[in-house]
Design goal:
Blueprint (H helix, E strand, L loop, with lengths): L2 H23 L3 H27 L6 H24 L2 H24 L5 H17 L15 H21 L5 H23 L1
Helix pairs in contact: 1-2, 2-3, 2-7, 3-6, 3-7, 4-5, 4-6
């Protein structure tokens, strides 16, 4: 991996952890995520328009765009519920860790993609990390019964699902257009949920 790619990955990880911490601290995590989605939509809009103008929108991409909008909307909803009811130290590792564990298993079944030994070691380290974060002095537990853990598990399953959908989706549509349309669609769906709650 080149230094630039490594720097981008580390930067993305820091930003990701940062916005999750902000979502947890927000008085209403769903409202925060909805506003962040609106900002993301505006930031992506010029690139989306450029990509669609240059490469168009193949109809083969439509089912994947719809699926990712539905899955990301569900992801933001379950993540907000998890942060409302659970601790960041419980919700974040379970949600992100479960997604990391499930993706290789599902990718093997669906795409016949296999992990390298280094990749398998990485997944094993994630699992060990989840256990280590929730180690108790008198017993080993991963806090599966802690508040918010059920929503965190649902979030992890959705993360794995949209990861596989997106892998197929970006082969049919420009990644920039794909992400921008996902942001816009999830913003609209969550906006309806916000209106329903007043």
């Amino acid at each position: 991996m080149s230094p630039v790619a490594l720097g981008l990955v580390i930067g993305a990880a820091v930003i990701h952890a940062g916005w999750n911490a902000l979502a947890k601290r927000a008085g209403d995590p769903l409202a925060f995520l909805w506003c962040a989605g609106g900002a993301g939509t505006l930031l992506c809009l010029p690139g989306v328009l450029y990509a669609l103008g240059r490469w168009g929108f193949p109809l083969a991409a439509l089912p994947f765009v719809i699926a990712t909008i539905v899955l990301h909307s569900a992801y933001f909803f379950t993540l907000a519920r998890a942060y409302r009811s659970g601790d960041l130290s419980v919700v974040y590792p379970i949600a992100r860790g479960l997604g990391v564990v499930l993706v290789p298993v599902l990718a093997l079944a669906i795409f016949d993609e296999r992990l390298s030994p280094a990749g398998a070691s990485g997944v094993a380290l994630v699992v060990i990390g989840i256990f280590a974060l929730h180690w108790r002095r008198r017993r080993a537990a991963i806090a599966l019964l802690a508040p918010g853990s059920g929503w965190a598990i649902a979030t992890g399953i959705i993360i794995a699902s949209y990861s596989l959908v997106d892998k197929a989706g970006v082969t049919r549509l420009s990644p920039l257009a794909y992400i921008g349309l996902m942001e816009l669609g999830a913003f609209v769906v969550l906006g309806l949920a916000m209106l329903a709650r007043r």
